[in-house]
Structure formats: structure tokens, C-alpha cells
Design goal:
This protein is of the alpha/beta class. Helices cover about 40% and strands about 25% of the residues. Strands 1, 2, 3, 4, 5, 6, 7 and 8 form an 8-stranded mixed β-sheet that branches. It binds benzoic acid.
């Protein structure tokens, strides 16, 4: 089942994704005039910040709707599948925030990133690592099982350990300078139903419209004890896998 993207809903429910991207921009340390590829640029908010720091940025995303939103911000954005990158030895850095967990064939992604980078170019990114949204995953899995549906065949996400990702980076000729898991409990501006509506399309689209409402309610109820604080509202149990690597010679 396909995940669909709605930039307006994304903006309402997930603005934290770009707001919390500042430490990653600092790790990338973009310099004026560098050519940088933003892999999975989404609505382009963080891509624009890269451009404001003086870099010449190209954003790619598989969602035409998100690319349109990014272009509306003045970003040079193109529709491209992250597992099918077509660039060749042309970027000083590839940057990626909160996108790589949507690409379930990491070796295809890494082969394309390596090809896109100049020798000595940097690959800096952050995405969901092992343990990410564990409470939500258990709740979704339980609610699907009650409906006779298999979680794994619908699961759109890849959340590797730091060790696994480091090995993959190295296998693709990258020298890893940083690779670690960072727990980051994240408060939501709205609520869990809003978050699920934006991000859990692969599961919701497997259900009939009338069943979707019941499913959302059930997942929310299953998470309430762990992910709801009466004073501060809903939050999500994010774990980030943050890394930096450099393209070595063959
Ligand atoms: C994340 O940023 O970790 C994430 C966002 C949406 C769905 C799954 C994970």
C-alpha cells in the first residue's frame, strides 16, 4: 500500500521535522558555493535553509506533491526516487534528514549516493534507527493483527542499528566519521491521530474508510499510557540514527 503525501497536513502535524534539523545542518557545515544534494527534501523547508547558508542546493523527493511545495519556496527540487539516483560525481555533499527510513533498499540508496558525490564528498544524515517509534509499532502491529493483517508486509520503514548502517556505508566505500543512535522523545504539535494520518498511510490504506477511524482510535488508545502526558500532550518515541561519512577513492 502506498504512502501518499499531503504538504498542508504535513506542515500542520510535522513541522518539528525541519525545526529539529539544526544540529544536522551544523554537522554538515555547508560552505558557500558548495553543491549539495538534499536527498528526500520533503516540503523543502530545510533545503531552503541550506541555500540560505550559501550552498547551491538541489532537492530530490519521490513525492510530486512535496516537490511542488519545495519549488513554491524557491528550491530547485526534482521528483526522483532515492533508490534510483541519477547523479554522477557532481556534489560536494549529500544531506538527508528524516527520509532514509522510507527507503527499504539501503544498498541501492548508498550506491547512488556514492555515485553522486565527488571524491572526498560528505554524506551527512539522520533518520529513524533501531528502537524508533517502538511503542507506536507495537500498537500498530497489535491493531493490525486483530484485523488479520500482517504488519511486516505493510511496513514501509527501515530502522537499522548503528552497527549495521556503519557496515553498509563502509561497504560502499565511505569512511565513517560519526554514526550513533540518539533517543529523541519528540512532543507533537497536534496529536497522535494527526501524526498517523500523515505518516501511516501504508497501514491506513489497507483498511476500508470506515475501519480507518476505529483503527486510529485503537492505536491511540494502545499508546496513551506511554505517549500521552496530561500536562504536555502527545509525544513520539523517536530514536535518530545520525551519521557522517566521506567518499574514499576506489
Ligand atoms: C521518523 O522521523 O522517525 C519517522 C517519521 C515518520 C514515520 C516513521 C518515522
Amino acid at each position: 500500500m502506498k504512502q501518499e503525501w499531503n504538504p498542508a497536513l504535513y506542515g500542520q502535524n510535522a513541522r518539528y521535522v525541519s525545526q529539529l534539523g539544526a544540529p544536522l545542518l551544523d554537522l554538515l557545515d555547508p560552505r558557500p558555493g558548495e553543491r549539495i544534494l538534499d536527498l528526500g527534501c520533503g516540503d523543502g523547508v530545510l533545503t531552503r535553509e541550506l541555500a540560505e547558508r550559501g550552498a547551491l542546493v538541489v532537492g530530490v523527493d519521490s513525492s510530486p506533491e512535496m516537490v511542488q511545495a519545495a519549488r513554491a519556496l524557491g528550491v530547485d527540487a526534482r521528483v526522483m526516487d532515492g533508490e534510483e539516483l541519477t547523479f554522477d560525481n557532481e556534489f560536494d555533499a549529500v544531506f538527508s534528514n528524516a527520509a532514509l527510513h522510507w527507503m527499504k533498499r539501503p544498498d541501492r540508496v548508498l550506491a547512488g549516493v556514492r555515485r553522486a558525490l565527488k571524491l572526498g564528498g560528505r554524506f551527512v544524515g539522520e533518520f529513524g534507527g533501531r528502537g524508533n517509534i517502538e511503542t507506536l509499532l507495537e500498537a500498530i502491529q497489535g491493531a493490525l493483527a486483530e484485523r488479520g493483517l500482517d504488519f511486516e508486509s505493510l511496513n514501509p520503514w527501515y530502522f537499522p542499528t548503528a552497527e549495521e548502517y556503519r557496515e553498509r556505508l563502509e561497504a560502499h566505500g565511505m569512511e565513517v566519521t560519526f554514526c550513533t543512535l540518539i533517543p529523541r522523545p519528540t512532543p507533537l504539535e497536534t496529536d497522535l491521530t494527526g501524526w498517523l494520518t500523515v505518516f501511516a498511510g501504508s497501514f491506513l490504506n489497507a483498511l476500508s474508510p470506515s475501519e480507518r477511524e476505529r483503527f486510529l482510535q485503537e492505536v491511540t488508545d494502545r499508546c496513551r499510557n506511554k505517549l500521552f502526558d496530561p500536562d504536555r500532550g502527545w509525544w513520539v518515541d523517536h530514536v535518530r540514527l545520525r551519521f557522517a561519512a566521506v567518499k574514499k577513492g576506489a
